[in-house]
Amino acid sequence: MSDDGTRLAGKLSIWLASLFAIVALIVGLINLFLDEPVPVPLDLVAGYLLGTLASFIAYVYGRSELILERQDRLLHQPARGVQVFTTSEEFLRKLVEITVGASTVSTLNLSPAKGEHPELDRYFEVVHSSIKNRKSPLRSFRSIASVDTVQKSAWLVERSCELHQTGRVSFAIFDQDRIRPLLHPLSLHITYKNGNIYVFIFPPVNLTGSMDSILISDPVLGKAMLDYYNLLWHDSLKINEGRQVRSQGLDRIVQLNPEIDANPFYQSLRKGLTL
Q1: Which end of the chain is more exposed for a tag (fewer CB within 10 A), N or C?
Q2: What is the pLDDT of residues 149-162, one digit of tens each?
Q3: What DSSP letter does each residue of 138-149 carry, written as one string?
Q4: Which residue in 123, 147, 168, 163 sits closest to 236, CA to CA?
């Protein structure tokens, strides 16, 4: 029932009930002064009352239907500036779209190493190609990574070795002892592109394909999240900052995974140590 129809049913039920009350009152008063009361047929009264009740029920039903419809519309309406993803495939597709062509990128990488997720591998391939493209508007790409496995450590030093000579990329790691109490923190990926700031918040990419994540494009919240990331960056152990290779991050990686010392990418970075 439409909103206008619901209002009409409500008004009709009120009018009919009021009319019945007025007629009943008048008949009652008249009967006080008559020797023989005016007869009121029971079937007429019952029909009238049933009609009034039907109008009232129609009104209540119509209002309930409208309330439920509006509630459903509000609950399923995405929040302003927020986009929700439910699979890793659609999330990574959007991540590539927003990252390529950005002027700055600040990412918290808690996902697995290359070779464990096809869509994640595609992300690395496309983004690395964009970073190495001299025509790219990218000025800064910062990545803080977890190094919880040997494979992740090897992939990290390979990325650093491949990209640090562009001068645009900086890699750092968490000190695992300091973040272990956090258990499984959420990943962040913050980009500044075409005058807009975008924030992805997501769990580590997994192989199941099912992954709830969000993209926020609100500038105030984006600025707050970037400030938070800058605090994380300040406390992280750097592997390289642009072309400058740092010892802190490399020392910590080899402490966590001694076998990485034989890795050719690690050895290459060691030869180029700046500090």
Answers
A1: C
A2: 899 999 999 999 99
A3: --EEEEEE---S
A4: 147
End-to-end Cα, the chain, rounded Å: 74
Sheet-wide strand order for 210-216: 82-87, 210-216, 196-202, 187-193, 104-109, 140-145, 169-173, 237-241, 244-245
Place of tokens 């918040």: 201
User: Which SS3 state, helix, strand or coil, does residue 88 take?
Assistant: helix
What SS3 class is residue 231? helix
Bridge partner list, 173: 145, 237
DSSP 135: T
Helix (H) or strand (E) holding 81: none
Label residues 26-60 b or e (16+ Cβ within 10 Å = b): eeeeeeeeeeeeeeeeeeeeeeeeeebeebbebbe
Query: In the structure encoding, which two tokens stand for residue 68, read together?
Result: 């439920």
Instruction: Report the C-alpha gap between 111 and 120 in whole angstroms.
Output: 9
Going 234 to 177 to 117 to 78, the CA torsion angle's sign is negative
Token pair of 259, please? 């076998």
Q: Report the distance separating Cα 253 and Cα 255, nearest Å.
A: 5
Buried b (16+ CB within 10 A) or exposed e, 167-185: ebbbbbbbeeeeeeeeeee
> CA 24, CA 142: separation in Å to the nearest integer?
83
What pLDDT, in 10s, does the model give residues 134-190? 999 999 999 999 887 899 999 999 999 999 999 999 999 986 555 555 555 678 999
